[in-house]
Design goal:
Layout: E1 9-12, H1 19-27, H2 35-41, E2 52-55, H3 78-86, H4 92-105, H5 111-121, H6 126-137, H7 144-151, H8 157-170, E3 182-187, E4 190-197, E5 205-209, E6 219-223, E7 227-235, E8 243-247, E9 250-253
Parallel strand pairs: 1-2
Antiparallel strand pairs: 3-4, 4-5, 6-7, 7-8, 8-9
Helix pairs in contact: 3-4, 4-6, 5-8, 6-7
Length: 266
């Protein structure tokens, strides 16, 4: 923040609704400065023992709002939050949670996915989408019109689906998945990702894309009772180098399982 120690007057020329923002602005006047340094700026001053607030708009008398965490709906899934926005819900708690989760995606998203998001949103990246919502919710500068403008890109179904897909792909792998279990992550009824522990026992969690637009991709079919088949085979390209099929709930190992990839494999 600004640190100009000789400041003796703080003037408010516009409304400030955030309590923390107001305190920060007042704090510009409490900087301590030695008498000699103050005289170098204001020759007739003896010492800085106070500062003056000039309130031209009644800021000091107005009610202020306290700052709150951005994530205000931690128990609500990202899918539900996006659906709420699509249905016209612009409650601050909902939008703030959406912005928080989009912001968290920024540093875990590949350049390829970021490019897809920009293409689908009309040029806006993850940072642009989250920042627009945060700015629209600012109690000092936000307006109903700016809120509508900020959520406008999220009205596009393809962008919502892409964001959900990206957040699932960028989410930390679940270390609590039990060996022998297969978890399928869905978005609006469509299978997007399959998670399973590597059957070799190395402990690594494998993530398989089930989305049609991604490459590589796999298909998962579930038989009765809840017996999965995965097509095509699963090949670990590092670590244990496992290579296997899962057919009707059983693991069928390939002959080259455990061997590093050759140039032909690549």
């Amino acid at each position: 923040g600004t640190d100009i120690k000789p400041v003796e007057i703080v003037m408010f020329m516009r409304a400030v609704k955030s309590r923390s923002f107001f305190e920060q602005m007042k704090g510009r006047g409490v900087r301590i400065i030695g008498a000699d340094d103050l005289k170098a700026v204001t020759p007739d001053a003896l010492a800085k023992d106070h500062f003056v607030i000039v309130d031209a708009v009644g800021v000091c008398e107005e009610e202020k709002t306290d700052s709150r965490p951005m994530e205000r709906k931690p128990s609500v899934s990202f899918e539900k939050l996006l659906q709420a926005v699509a249905f016209g819900n612009t409650e601050p708690d909902v939008l703030s949670s959406v912005a928080a989760r989009i912001a968290r995606m920024e540093f875990r998203t590949s350049a390829e996915d970021e490019a897809k998001i920009r293409t689908t949103s009309g040029g806006l990246g993850l940072k642009d989408l989250s920042r627009a919502i945060v700015n629209a919710l600012d109690p000092d500068t936000g307006t109903p019109a700016s809120v509508q403008q900020a959520v406008k890109p999220l009205m596009e179904p393809k962008l919502r689906e892409l964001l959900a897909d990206v957040i699932l792909s960028a989410a930390p792998l679940d270390s609590g998945i039990a060996k022998g279990r297969l978890i399928v992550l869905e978005w609006e009824g469509h299978a997007k990702w399959a998670l399973l522990k590597c059957p070799c026992g190395c402990g690594e969690t494998i993530r398989l894309s089930l989305a049609g637009e991604r490459r590589p991709r796999w298909e998962v079919s579930i038989g009765d009772p809840d017996i999965p088949t995965i097509f095509p085979s699963v090949r670990q390209t590092a670590g244990c180098f496992s290579h296997f099929w899962i057919e009707k709930g059983s693991v069928r190992w390939c002959a080259d399982s455990g061997s590093p990839l050759t140039q032909w494999h690549r």
